[in-house]
Automatic annotation (TrEMBL):
<dbReference type="InterPro" id="IPR036388">
    <property type="entry name" value="WH-like_DNA-bd_sf"/>
</dbReference>
<dbReference type="InterPro" id="IPR000073">
    <property type="entry name" value="AB_hydrolase_1"/>
</dbReference>
<protein>
    <submittedName>
        <fullName>LuxR family transcriptional regulator</fullName>
    </submittedName>
</protein>
<dbReference type="InterPro" id="IPR016032">
    <property type="entry name" value="Sig_transdc_resp-reg_C-effctor"/>
</dbReference>
<feature type="domain" description="HTH luxR-type">
    <location>
        <begin position="272"/>
        <end position="337"/>
    </location>
</feature>
<dbReference type="InterPro" id="IPR050471">
    <property type="entry name" value="AB_hydrolase"/>
</dbReference>
<dbReference type="Pfam" id="PF00561">
    <property type="entry name" value="Abhydrolase_1"/>
</dbReference>
<dbReference type="InterPro" id="IPR029058">
    <property type="entry name" value="AB_hydrolase_fold"/>
</dbReference>
<dbReference type="InterPro" id="IPR000792">
    <property type="entry name" value="Tscrpt_reg_LuxR_C"/>
</dbReference>
<dbReference type="Pfam" id="PF00196">
    <property type="entry name" value="GerE"/>
</dbReference>
Amino acid sequence: MGQRIAMAASAGGDRIAYAVTGSGPPLVYVSGWLGHLELSWALPAERAYYEALADGRTLIRYDKPGCGLSEGHDGPYTMQREQDALRAVVAAAGVARFDLMGASLGAGVAAGWAAEQPASVSRLVLYGGWPRGVDVAAPEIREHVIGLVRQHWGLASDLLTDIFAPDADAATRVAFTRYQRDSASAETACAMLAAAYTINVVDLLPLISAPTLVVHRERDRAAPIEQGRRLADGIPGARFEALPGRSHLPYIGEVRPVTSMIRRFLGLPGTHRGAAPTLTARQREVAALIAEGCTNREIGERLGIAERSAEAHVERIRYRMDFRSRSQIAAWYVATGGPD
């Protein structure tokens, strides 16, 4: 299952990158605080999660302003900016009515959209979210985390991996830690984290009329389960489902219960047809050298093959994995544990 990447321009002046995957009725996905369309597609766990959502749906997801492939202007990061980005993507993708899903910070964004644009939302799914950011953590914890991101983004990204993905294997942890730093600068990460702590959609929740599913893991370390219950309690007729687990990221830990529940709510079979793409032994050797930063000429010299042959191997990897860049190949290699 491949993804097509395009650009949209928001009313606020941001250029928003969005990706389209699968076929069927549209499902618009609002991610959490950071993201990168290309690198997320290179992480096997995250890609499998998106492919599960896209089986039977046209999945539309996007990088937030200033993150990943999107370009952001200098200015405050606000809920209005989030809504402008979502509006730009929906318009560029040409969808008027769609299922809408928001995860983490994206849950509040999606809830706000569903309240203010009820005619556009068929069904609403909220995962790992909260109605009021100030209730997620004590003030001193919020200040500490934001300060750490600002002063030492490398150390902070490692700490946040512990919080967001405690159940990830060692290779995925390393890959996700790098992924955060590659997705946004420390300045952008701080601005978005501050937005997560200040979001407030409490007064909008009663205005949501779309059938709504709220999903939360019981021991979520980033957003306590009480926050998910508050989201559901505020939305008329919302269904709340608690699932075992402690990872905040939906694609880490026991993922199938999450995707199966969402798929059934959307009117799809609980299981999907996903199959992870693989590489040959030679292609893994080439991927390893790309992860080391080798050029095609250096790959040829290391493997005793012509530079043209090395280039051909790289192109086959990109085609087979639906990758657009060498950085995706490197990220995939790290996330899969390196040498066999």
